[in-house]
Amino acid sequence: MATEVAYPPELTVVPIMHAQGSVRLPGSKSISNRVLLLAALARGETTLTGLLDADDTRVMVAALGTLGVAIDWNGDTAVVRGCAGRFPVREAELFLGNAGTAMRPLTAALAFAGGRYTLDGVARMRERPIGDLVNALNTLGARIAYLGTPGYPPLQIEPASALTQDRVSIKGDVSSQFVTGLLMAAPLVAPTAGLRIEVAGSLISQPYVAMTVALMRRFGVDVRREDLSFIVPRADYVAPGTLAIEGDASGASYFLALGVLAGGPLRVLGVGRDSVQGDIAFADLLVAMGGRIDWGPDWIEARAAGPLTAIDYDCTEIPDAAMTAAVLALFAQGRTVLRGIGSWRVKETDRIDAMATELAKLGAQVEAGPDWLAVLGPATLRPAAIDTYDDHRIAMCFAPAAAGGVPVTIRDPKCVAKTFPRYFDDLRALTTAPPVIAIDGPTASGKGTVAQRVAQALGFHYLDSGALYRLVALAALRAGVDAQDAPALAALAARLAPHFAGDRVVLDGDDVTDAIRTEEVSRMASLIAVHPPLRAALFRLQQSFRRAPGLVADGRDMGTVVFPDAVLKIYLTAGVEQRAQRRLAQLSQKGIEAKLSPLLADLRARDERDFHRAVSPLKPAEDAVPLDTSDLTIEQAVDWVLGAYRTGARR
Fold first, then answer.
1. In the chain, what is the greatest distance between 2 CA atoms, to the nearest angstrom?
2. What are the percentages of helix, strand and coil residues in the chain, rounded to 5?
3. For residues 233 and 105, what is the distance between their CA atoms, to the nearest angstrom?
4. CA distance 408 to 404
5. Does the annotation count 602 as an active-site position?
6. Peptide bond into 370 cis (omega under 30)
7. Looking at 55, 320, 371, 464, which residue is catalytic?
């Protein structure tokens, strides 16, 4: 198995200026779990290559191991010694997490295995329906009971060894996994003349069922299809020797979308025109919206080809990839309607409601129905923190929205471990973010003036992070909030929406430049900056200033905490006496009376607090370039920073 990938509780995808390159997709979850079960049921030994190493496959491997199947798993290769259709262990309790690709097929495979089994999962699994599959199996003579809410796991399976009839009907409009599970179990228990499985009503996600049939054929069982009926022969599964698993076509959708949104070309490796997965049809949707797609036998490449246009699209065949289309709709001209997505409501979460909620955070106008979603994108995206509902696909499909020039924060990013553990690392490797110059240093070192002028010279955006703390300090003083009331201060910070216009600071349309520069506000800002809740509240706001073509940010932890990937980090300082003299001159120019001794004492006190505070103490980043401005003019300091940026002192 692969090494676990660690992600923080919240991960911010910074604005994406361009995306280009190639990515090797992890193995398909749908194929991986199907072939693991087929190999376990087969006669002989199967070597699986390209196997997905993620939560859902680990659940399946653990369950098969509990049932007595020997599996030797090393990296992306697993050797499965099949049990010839008869699991050695006849009594077991299986915990299947939130893996529908394990719960549904194993329920069918164990229904006539002659043993006593309990199947359960996480709380959400207990909300995902399985009644249609259980009804069909019980109609055939299985003995499956619900241990909780009827129609949902957990399940109790009692011994049953023979079918009572040669045909069965099953609904196909809730989940294609019900049909898949029944198909995979059928050859081992079918009557001599075969078992006819009739799909009642419509069959959603038909390509997934076609994939199941194709994989069964690789293990020696040919299923005949007649319209919405499948005739499954009585047969043994036979190990095919070695079987290579395709890359995940659903996972490809995020990178193909990114290629269209952020220039490209971006190539996904592991799926192509020869794939058996239906989600490769997402490439056709991209073309319909205005993207350019090129194909190879085992690769697909996407790039931008002009503005995207809205579509009205039937996504019945590509339900997982359709989530990515909903995010693409943010960028399209017009109102996009995605239809045939009713299965979203019974996935890891109610994806229709979840997608509607999260798309609205980015500024979209969204309408939703039982099996459709309509999205009208905003003129300009808003920065947003996306809740993921423990749903890997929500986490992954929203990340490309950062191509809209705003940071997108993904909460609980580790949920991608379900199918694509290295997703965010691969995404980062393919993208170019707006460059950041971080200028840190103590109070009155000149960093604000230098940063502002550097930003102006380069045409970059400017962030005076100290002004954010001053704005909170001003709001706290006006509202009578105590400097030690961290929760109240954090609440004030969460409502800030400032704008920097040249050397002016604008808040809610009011110029507060002078108001936040008073000594009273300065002292208050230094006092409140030590509170972790306040710093956390301002962190996302600070990151939202990172936009194309670039950003110059000044403060005390820009290079160490807020923008650790800054291309150039400057630690700008000066002697405390020089800084006190500068502060005195600034106040005098504004007509404010002040004396040197108190200013000097105040600066020393602030330095002491800043250097020794428990959270993000003032210190140079390890890769920062030092700049002592004690004997430099502002113009000389600005020229020095510009020279460092342009001549490669940056990382």
1. 102
2. 40, 25, 35
3. 18
4. 9
5. no
6. no
7. 320
